[in-house]
Amino acid sequence: MEPEDKETAFVSKLLTEDGIRSEMPEWDDFDDEERAFLRGKMIGVATSRMRMGKCRLEIGKDLLELRDFLEKKGSKTFTKIIKGLNGFTRATAYTHIGNYERAISLNSMPWFTG
Questions:
Q1: Which end of the chain has fewer CB atoms at under 10 Å, N or C?
Q2: Secondary structure of residue 86 in the 3-state scheme
Q3: pLDDT per residue as tens digits for the range 18-59
Q4: 100 has a pLDDT exceeding 90
Q5: How far apart are CA 110 and CA 56, in angstroms?
Q6: CA dist 91 to 31, 54, 98, 102, Å?
């Protein structure tokens, strides 16, 4: 399976046949074609989970930039703008912002640049 992008390439390096075998001794019960299919799907799931987390961090980044922009302008409309976004409350916005700031401070995502 050829890695299509940097996220998939990153997951592919982590999800090796030896690693899978150590968690699942039955791995060798499958033939080569079945193992290729299973590993490909496992990489797909792991990559999607990583992208989901990255999307949440991007939300936090955008909210932080929005808040900072408004604060520089002296505007007190951040909460009003947040209420205009479906499904967002002030608390939810600050949770996303906090998660983004923590992730960047820890530099815990080599595939995500803040």
A1: N
A2: coil
A3: 999 999 999 999 999 999 999 999 999 999 998 998 899 999
A4: yes
A5: 16
A6: 50, 20, 10, 16
- Two tokens, residue 107: 């530099």
Cα–Cα distances in Å, from 100 out to 1, 13, 78, 82, 93?
A: 32, 25, 18, 17, 11
79 is written with which tokens? 């909460």
44-54 in b/e burial notation, b at 16+ Cβ within 10 A? eebbeebeeee
Task: Give the pair of three-digit tokens for residue 16.
Answer: 């090796």
What pTM value is reported for the model?
Answer: 0.68
- Angle between the N-to-C axes of helices 32-72 and 6-14, in degrees from 0 to 180, rounded to the nearest 10: 130
Q: Which two tokens stand for residue 20?
A: 């899978």
pLDDT score for 43: 93
